[in-house]
Each structure stands twice: as structure tokens, then as C-alpha cells.
Automatic annotation (TrEMBL):
<protein>
    <submittedName>
        <fullName>Lytic transglycosylase domain-containing protein</fullName>
    </submittedName>
</protein>
<dbReference type="InterPro" id="IPR023346">
    <property type="entry name" value="Lysozyme-like_dom_sf"/>
</dbReference>
<keyword id="KW-0732">Signal</keyword>
<dbReference type="InterPro" id="IPR008258">
    <property type="entry name" value="Transglycosylase_SLT_dom_1"/>
</dbReference>
<dbReference type="Pfam" id="PF01464">
    <property type="entry name" value="SLT"/>
</dbReference>
<comment type="similarity">
    <text>Belongs to the transglycosylase Slt family.</text>
</comment>
<feature type="domain" description="Transglycosylase SLT">
    <location>
        <begin position="72"/>
        <end position="169"/>
    </location>
</feature>
<feature type="signal peptide">
    <location>
        <begin position="1"/>
        <end position="24"/>
    </location>
</feature>
Length: 194
């Protein structure tokens, strides 16, 4: 008798939380963990790698880039970055290959280095939703750090914020200059279409 009551209570709590936005007021994320035995844990902190943001976007591996745009639009709006800029980043970073790995070890759609991923709490770099969320959140940090200048933020995303701060501009690194030019070119072309 107690077990069905516990599941009913859990279902009622889950329904209540389902009616709430994915993040609490002030942008705080709600995390959910489905424990063995049907027990659901909710927290405002990620207590372990098993806790996922309550609104967790799982995307099938064989999805095309147009379908990934729903995820890109969601996180772009959430972090106040034009989704077309994010799309241009993904195109240049990985060519929309979900399991892309660069020669230097950057992973996933937004090519996040393992150390940066660890700092961002990214535990599943080849899951499109978490990878895009972490990359967009990192780009938001770079935009904030460099006064909203997209070229400097992209350079920092590619070469690291320390190098951009030291050079007070796009570093004289051919790969970084090429990356910034490609992303801005694709972004500008898409923005001009509207």
C-alpha cells in the first residue's frame, strides 16, 4: 500500500515540476535523477553526473542539421545569442558531425576541449543537447568578457580568452583568424538573407 502511494506522490510532484520552466527564477536550473526503484530526485544543484537538467534535450544520432536547429534556437535564445551565429559556429566547428573529434581533442558539435568541458560540467560531449548548451554558455561568457564583440568572442572560443586578452584583438594565429573569418562570413551571409 505504501509503494503505490509513494509513486502517486512522486508522479504528482513530477507533474507539478513539469508545469514549471526548466530553470527557476533567476536562471537557476532544476536537475532530475531517476533512481532505481522509481524514486525521482530533484535538486537545484548537479549532485552527480546522473543528474540532468530537467528539460534535457536528447537528439537522435542520425538527425540532420535542420532538426538540430530546434536545439540551437532554444539555447541561443536562453543565453541571448543569435541562433544563426551558433549555427555558423557549429557548421565551422564540426560540420554538424555529432561525434566529431579534432586532432587536438576537441569534441562534439561545438568542438569543446575536454578541460573546458569539465569546467562547464559537460559530461556527455557527444550528446548534441548538452554539447550545444555548454558551447553556447561558453560563448555567452566570451561575449560578456569581450564587451559583446563577436569577433573577439569567437577568437577566444577558438584560441582561449587569455590569448585574446594579451593581444587585445584577434591573435595572429592563422587557424584562429581563419576560424573567425569563416564563422563571421557564414553568419553574415545568413543574417543578410533575412
Amino acid at each position: 500500500m505504501f509503494r503505490p502511494m509513494r509513486r502517486t506522490l512522486a508522479a504528482m510532484c513530477l507533474a507539478l515540476f513539469a508545469s514549471l520552466p526548466a530553470s527557476a527564477p533567476g536562471g537557476e536550473v532544476i536537475y532530475k535523477y531517476d533512481a532505481p526503484g522509481g524514486v525521482i530526485h530533484l535538486s537545484n544543484r548537479r549532485l552527480s553526473k546522473d543528474y540532468r537538467p530537467y528539460f534535457y534535450m536528447r537528439v537522435p544520432r542520425a538527425v540532420d542539421q535542420d532538426k538540430l536547429m530546434a536545439v540551437i534556437r532554444y539555447y541561443g535564445r536562453r543565453y541571448k545569442i543569435d541562433p544563426e551565429l551558433v549555427r555558423a559556429m557549429v557548421e565551422v566547428e564540426s560540420g554538424f558531425v555529432i561525434e566529431a573529434v579534432s586532432p587536438k581533442g576537441a569534441q562534439g558539435l561545438m568542438q569543446i576541449m575536454p578541460g573546458t568541458g569539465k569546467d562547464l560540467g559537460l559530461t556527455e560531449p557527444f550528446e548534441p543537447g548538452p554539447n550545444i548548451e555548454a558551447g553556447v554558455r561558453y560563448m555567452r561568457d566570451m561575449l560578456d568578457r569581450f564587451g559583446g564583440d563577436a569577433s573577439l568572442a569567437l577568437a577566444a572560443y577558438n584560441a582561449g580568452p587569455g590569448r585574446v586578452s594579451r593581444t587585445t584583438g584577434v591573435p595572429d594565429i592563422p587557424e584562429t583568424k581563419d576560424y573567425v573569418a569563416k564563422v563571421m562570413g557564414r553568419y553574415g551571409a545568413r543574417s543578410g538573407m533575412r
